Amino acid sequence: MTITDLRTFATFDGHGGKVSKRVEVLDHEPAAGSPHEGLVAVRGEHPMGALDERAADESAALARGVPSVGWVDPSTLRDWYRPDRVVITRLEARQSGIEPGLFADSRGRGRVRIDGLEARLAPDGRPAFRALAGSDAPWVVDVPLPTDQAVRLVAVSEVDEGFEVVTAPVSPFLQPGEYAAYDDVPGLPPRPSSGRVVVSATVLLDGSLHEVERIDEQAATIWIRRDGRAVPMATSAVGPDLVRYTATPA
Q: Partners of 221 in the beta sheet?
């Protein structure tokens, strides 16, 4: 996930609620008095059942499975997702003790610094960040922080105006794939990688397990295999406790 990418995504219910699609909500205001006044523009796969569909490329024709643009009633959009961004002055940052870095706001430990975004497996198979405690270097390593215990991710970086602070929900899901494995001990510095593991995931929905094909962090969307095809769902609609992980040596 690119933390500073502030694009907006939502789930669109089209065709009388029979079709649900993850779409990008565009920052485009209709002209006052136009037929589209009060509607929002979205980009997603055609057909979406939008009120006024047109191809994203004005010179192209609408085609099934190809992203197109259409105007929709905002009441048909749910599961909105967009990171928050504020810019503060250097004086405000110094007064508030804000410094560049990546942090996690957790329910259990408050705000802690994290050791990058690389995936680390927790002992129970969940994804985990490495939480760092303390305000002065060298950092003291805390216990792993599972992402389903993190309320949001906070990225602080320097910009011309001062400091940019971007917050975004932390996905409680681990992208299927190959990862480095660590035999870390809570309270001690991280150990070198002890090998690599291949992680696969399934989601329990309606009493059946469905394979997780991929996760789009930027769009807060999880793609699962259902009836032989990939189906996108909002990550907010899938509880972390419904995900099962399997890790095997690479």
A: 216, 234
What does the pLDDT profile of the chain (250 residues) look like in tens digits?
Answer: 344 567 888 988 877 767 778 899 998 888 888 888 889 999 988 767 788 888 888 788 888 778 889 998 888 898 888 878 889 999 999 888 888 888 887 766 777 888 766 667 776 667 777 777 655 555 556 667 776 667 778 889 999 999 999 888 776 677 888 888 777 666 666 677 788 888 888 988 888 899 999 888 777 788 888 888 888 888 877 876 788 888 888 8
Q: In 3D, which of 35, 40, 64, 59 has the Cα closest to residue 50? A: 40
End-to-end CA distance of the chain: 25
Pairing of strands 120-121, 150-159: unpaired
Q: Which candidate, 10, 8, 16, 19, places its Cα nearest to that of 235?
A: 10
Q: What share of the chain is helix, strand, coil (3-state, %, to 5)?
A: 10, 55, 40
Q: What is the pTM of this model?
A: 0.65
Q: Is the Cβ–Cβ distance between 68 and 54 less than 8 Å?
A: yes
Report the alpha-carbon distance of residue 228 to residue 231 in Å, rounded.
9
The radius of gyration of the chain from alpha carbons, rounded to an integer in Å, stands at 21
Question: 3-state DSSP call for residue 244?
Answer: strand
Please, are residues 146 and 107 in contact by the beta-carbon 8 Å criterion? no
Structure tokens at 10: 């939502």
- Alpha carbon distance 146, 104 (integer Å): 10
* 13-28 core/surface letters (b: 16 or more CB in 10 A; e: else): bbeeeeebbbbbbeee
Picking from 173, 194, 186, 96, the residue whose alpha carbon sits closest to that of residue 133 is 186
Please state, in angstroms and rounded to a whole number, the distance separating the CA atoms of residues 150 and 128. Answer: 10
